[in-house]
UniProtKB/TrEMBL annotation:
SUPFAM superfamilies membership: LanC-like
Entries under SMART domains matching the protein: LANC_like
Gene3D superfamilies: 1.50.10.20
Pfam families found in the cross-reference section: LANC_like
Superkingdom in the source lineage: Bacteria
InterPro entries: LANC-like (IPR007822)
Protein name: Lanthionine synthetase-like protein
């Protein structure tokens, strides 16, 4: 039943996106290609199961096509340019759309899936060029610390990349920043990233609330402790374990597109 649902969902997603791309309509829906809801996250699941590799190739071909430039507001932008606002309560934040450079909802998800598939020997035409074009776009916005902002407005106004998240969890919080920086630091040996790790770990540990049995509560949302993976104590503990344990990988990281 799961296979049938996944196959149907992928077919519907690809049909919608092919129709949009064939019509020359810019503005890729984030939910079509991201890790949380879209092709990148589904593709990571498909990659784990050889019986799904034919379906996976269709998703990869879509992600490759998504890197082709398009025109939006008279400007040439990557095909993964997003026209919608991230927060409907603030509709004026990105009047001309944006580029999302993140992993959960941004272009790092497609790049990572394409790279993992390539490592597994699953190739589609143009995959190398797609990976390179995404990497080049990311490097355009890299700062002196080896980091880059999560979002870039079409007007090239870069949002402040130094805003420290107040939540502790993996999804949008300090544990997520610690975990991803740990992975990149160990994989690349970049001294700038290595130097950031103790500070990031301390920032995670700044947030415990001793009155809760699992110590971490999601700020401004609930007085009850969160126990889950993405925004709760389980994910925070795993991120701290990864930081303390060094380069050794664990299978849980596959859900975060880092292995």
């Amino acid at each position: 039943m799961t296979d049938e649902l996944v196959t149907r969902h992928v077919a519907e997603l690809l049909a919608r996106e092919r129709a949009r791309l064939d019509a020359g309509i810019p503005g890729a829906p984030i939910r079509a290609y991201d890790v949380i809801s879209g092709a990148s996250g589904i593709g990571r699941y498909l990659l784990l199961h050889p019986r799904h590799h034919t379906l996976l190739r269709h998703l990869l071909a879509y992600l490759v096509r998504l890197t082709a430039p398009v025109a939006a507001h008279g400007v040439t932008v990557p095909g993964w340019w997003v026209s919608t606002v991230p927060n409907p309560a603030r509709p004026h934040d990105f009047p001309c759309g944006r580029l999302n450079l993140g992993l959960a909802h941004g272009i790092c998800g497609p790049m990572t899936l394409l790279a993992f598939a390539r490592q597994a020997g699953i190739r589609v035409p143009g995959d190398d060029e797609a990976i390179a074009s995404i990497a080049e776009e990311l490097l355009t916005y890299q700062d002196e610390r080896g980091q880059w902002p999560g979002t870039v407005a079409l007007e090239d106004i870069v949002l402040d990349g130094e805003n420290d998240p107040v939540e502790p969890g993996l999804c949008h919080g300090r544990a997520g920043a610690l975990h991803l920086t740990s992975v990149l630091a160990h994989d690349t040996g970049d001294a700038r990233l290595v130097a950031q790790l103790p500070r990031l770990a301390e920032r995670v540990l700044d947030l415990p609330t001793p009155e809760h049995p699992f110590r971490f509560a999601r700020e401004n949302t609930s007085s009850r402790p969160r126990l889950g993976f993405l925004d709760g104590a389980a994910g925070i503990a795993l991120a701290l374990h990864r930081y303390a344990d060094g380069p050794q990988r664990t299978i849980w990281e596959a859900a975060l597109m880092v292995c």
